[in-house]
């Protein structure tokens, strides 16, 4: 360690070994007035000391006690402990003050172990410790969380008669506070015969940092009752507690005290106020204080950036960040993390890359927290490949790093990658936390595989995370998305505490399963409790009404969300209303609703309208909706396909040809239908009309045989959207849609009575929906199909959607 410290310093003149000196030697007057002594006294950097040293040696002043003491102090202050020791060791009859100086240097700039070793040497050399020797050591123990060592120092402190010393005991209070032993800290504080302002600030800060905001605030009141006036340090300690409580009322009281006490010009107090108002949801007041600051530190800028990010104003956060750079303020790691978060929220890849390059320029690549924020940023900007690159190069990966990567994969639809990283993390004996599970569980939900859902549920139980409200909410959502809606409700009922997201997950689950009445009943139950519905709740309710054809109920809830709860409808809510009216066949009403919208309709609104026109074969309104969609998103082939299908249903083959020509010129393609089914721990994928599966011959032969049975039971194929081919070919094209291939494979490879679970990436077409009903009838099997919009439970020739989807 010593050699490293020396090598990291500038080149110096070799320090000679001084002759033994006594601290009792009287220092001549010429020594004090020597130019080298004056220069040494004025030196401000270690480099200047190294430049002066040759003059001191040349003048034979190096052995003088004044120079030795001054050199020792300078080397310690600059963290050059090895050089300080080289000055210290040769001195005979060392004064106690040199021991105290070197101990302080070890405590501040070396390891706790070396500091304690030197403290033991002091005792061996019969040097009696003074109070601040203990406070230095206690501070190091507190900062490093070394409770056991801290208790040993506390014992030595008592043994040396400092148990009633206010400075020493304040250090003890600080030690226990930082080591999360706040009750012990308070015992020490309460036993102090006298307390000064620093003591009060220490215990208040201790309670605040340990998450006990109310007690910290109570102590501020008590300190005033006992005659102590809070200072700026008190306020800076207590304001984060106010922010964590979200109590702007208390925050304003503290702000009032700041003004009355004349602290409004202090940068640390103003920064704490900016942070408090931002976290309490009053970002505009925070900005007013920030703009009024005559002086700002980097922490001030960081607080404003973080405040905007927390409040959902990512663009404003980037504005502050860019202004900070324009004013020449050097960003810190915290700045970069805030800016990366803002870019992630905006999905702004270009500015995100700029933040990354700036981070590299500032050499923050070794900071794991910064790299984790960049991983999250790239993931949210749809560049998970860049996130993987950072993760792969990152040294010292933490659980947060793995969580960020797993979530990034899940958010970008890379479900298998998310699961593989989770398994790898598990193999490295990294214990998952709540965040890990709420990242990986949704990935499993997307696979919609019941077996894996049960496995991860069991894993949560074994990891003792099954009582966590967020994990349980994710499990409820997962079971609902895996078709196990009754299991989801059982878990929901067992929960002792439910968050609004828990209610939303269960209501949405009922909606996607076509159980509109159950969704409404649950929503009514929610309204009777203490948890208030939010915008997502109403979106789930409206969607449930839409899937169940509950038009009037949906209207009522749409009106209620603003009237009764003050929630302004967003584009998604308007889209749900259009979907509700359109599915019910009220197309003119839906179109008029769009025309009267107070906000500009988006893709989701016109997309719902076009889908409804496809269901109800309305060419005129379908063309209007499609025209809007082509303008908003000209590169999406799916809308062109929908319009072509509307024309085909109306036998407008010329128009179908025009749409297909446009698609060909633009290079647009229809998203190929893909259905998956799991069998014996393996997922099998099927695309429409493909023959590359090992069992393709069996599947196609079985479908032909099944088709005969279905027709005998009354099935009539719907080939209205296909033209230019013979009728038998039309039937063949329909019969080889991906979901039918997946269903046939499942039937061939499972025993009688086993339900078939199929997941499709697109909406089930009308003919396949009818065909699956007949398949369930002639085979006696339950078939559960999850398409891009909802679940269909086919059993005994009927579907849970009631043919309304």
UniProtKB/TrEMBL annotation:
Pfam families assigned: DYW_deaminase, E_motif, PPR, PPR_2, PPR_3
Keywords on record: Repeat
Domain DYW: 714-805
Record carries keyword Repeat: yes
UniProt xrefs under PROSITE patterns: PPR
Protein name, UniProt field: DYW domain-containing protein
UniProt repeat feature PPR, residue ranges: 95-129, 165-195, 196-230, 297-331, 398-432, 468-498, 499-533, 534-569
Residue ranges, compositional bias (Low complexity): 1-16
Keyword Membrane: no
Disordered: annotated span: 1-26
